């Protein structure tokens, strides 16, 4: 295996995991994109970041894109090199929109683009490597494949399958000014939940797949969650209140990933969006990214 290309450009979408009841399983790719340009060099690795994360993320070997890229090269049996990275980031950091998964996937796709035999990093290998970084495949799968996905793990590793998505599913995202580390959002979750809550969530997750694929009239009922969102209210009270108010008004609103952003699986009307903006939320209308991470010409 050898480095066959000197430079590649990668585009990778934001993602929202869980979608309410589909905890650590369901995910959706959103039309907010990071772009990474990677050039193999002989000198020391350097990273330039524009946009989100500028000044807050490492600028050398510890950068997440670099770490993932190096793992990809190692897995493929390709030689390592110095790297010159330019990251143009639009995905908000620490907001539950999959910024870390996007960085990992960008690095892996860049590695695949650089090597002489891309099949050494096929889709199953990429998903396994991304899951190794992330801990679970719910964000990695839609970042890699686009659209809506259901992901699971077994003795053979992580897997993902596409969920057919109705055109009426046109998500809005509410982004707060403050960030929250995923670790903090997970620390408040209990080790056990009541059996009745788990059973209810299983039914709602199944219903959500049906709603996403065509029965959009069921989205509000299908996005009810009993096993993680309520427990997170203590670390994101404004998010919890926004979800509650939107759902009472009939909107299928959930915490986006680990939060604190809010995902609404319908496009908000202008009056609602303006009201939320006045209360400090940045309202995005990203649509669904039907294509996952890919190389740009």
Shape: globular
Largest sheet: 7 strands, mixed
Cα-atom Rg, whole angstroms? 19 Å
Helical run tally: 9
Mind explaining what this structure looks like?
Its EC number is 2.7.1.39. Pfam families: GHMP_kinases_C, GHMP_kinases_N. It is found in: Cytoplasm. The chain has 297 residues and is an alpha+beta fold. It has 2 domains: 7-163 and 289-296, Ribosomal Protein S5, domain 2, CATH 3.30.230; 172-284, GHMP kinase, C-terminal domain (Alpha-Beta Plaits), CATH 3.30.70. The chain has 9 helices and 11 strands. The chain has helices spanning 64-76, 99-114, 123-134, 140-145, 182-187, 195-212, 219-222, 237-248, 270-278, and strands spanning 7-17, 26-41, 46-51, 82-89, 148-154, 157-163, 172-175, 253-255, 262-264, 282-284, 294-296. Strands 1, 2, 3, 4, 5, 6 and 11 form a 7-stranded mixed sheet that branches. The protein has a 4-stranded antiparallel sheet with strand order 8-9-7-10, covered by helices on one side. A hairpin with a 2-residue loop joins strand 5 (148-154) and strand 6 (157-163).
Defining traits:
Ribosomal Protein S5, domain 2; seven-stranded mixed beta sheet; globular; Alpha-Beta Plaits; alpha+beta; 297 residues; four-stranded antiparallel beta sheet; 11 strands; cytoplasm; 2 domains; single chain
Topology diagram in text:
Blueprint: E1 7-17, E2 26-41, E3 46-51, H1 64-76, E4 82-89, H2 99-114, H3 123-134, H4 140-145, E5 148-154, E6 157-163, E7 172-175, H5 182-187, H6 195-212, H7 219-222, H8 237-248, E8 253-255, E9 262-264, H9 270-278, E10 282-284, E11 294-296
Parallel strand pairs: 3-4
Antiparallel strand pairs: 1-2, 1-11, 2-4, 2-5, 5-6, 7-9, 7-10, 8-9
Helix pairs in contact: 1-2, 2-3
């Amino acid at each position: 295996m050898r480095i066959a290309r000197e430079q590649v450009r990668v585009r990778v979408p934001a993602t929202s995991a869980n979608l309410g009841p589909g905890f650590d399983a369901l995910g959706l790719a959103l039309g907010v994109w990071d772009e990474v340009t990677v050039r193999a060099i002989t000198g020391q690795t350097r990273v330039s970041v524009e946009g989100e994360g500028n000044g807050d993320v490492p600028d050398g070997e510890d950068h997440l894109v670099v770490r993932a890229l190096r793992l990809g090269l190692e897995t493929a049996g390709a030689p390592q090199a110095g790297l010159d990275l330019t990251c143009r980031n639009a995905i908000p950091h620490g907001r539950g929109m999959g910024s870390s998964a996007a960085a990992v996937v960008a690095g892996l796709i860049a590695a695949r683009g650089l090597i002489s035999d891309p099949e050494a990093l096929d889709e199953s290998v990429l998903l396994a490597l991304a899951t190794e970084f992330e801990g679970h495949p719910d964000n990695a799968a839609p970042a890699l494949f686009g659209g809506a996905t259901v992901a699971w793990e077994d003795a053979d590793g992580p897997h993902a399958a596409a969920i057919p998505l109705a055109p009426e599913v046109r998500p809005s995202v509410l982004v707060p000014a403050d960030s929250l580390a995923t670790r903090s959002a997970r620390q408040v979750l209990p080790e056990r939940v009541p059996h009745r809550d788990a059973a209810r969530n299983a039914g709602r997750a199944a219903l959500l797949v049906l709603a996403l694929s065509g029965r959009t009239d069921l989205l509000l009922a299908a996005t009810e969650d009993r096993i993680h969102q309520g427990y997170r209210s203590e670390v994101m009270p404004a998010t919890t209140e926004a979800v509650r108010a939107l759902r009472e008004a009939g909107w299928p609103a959930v915490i986006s990933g680990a939060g604190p952003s809010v995902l609404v699986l319908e496009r908000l009307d202008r009056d609602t969006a303006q009201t939320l903006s006045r209360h400090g939320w940045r309202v995005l209308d990203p649509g669904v990214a039907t294509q996952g991470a890919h190389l740009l010409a």
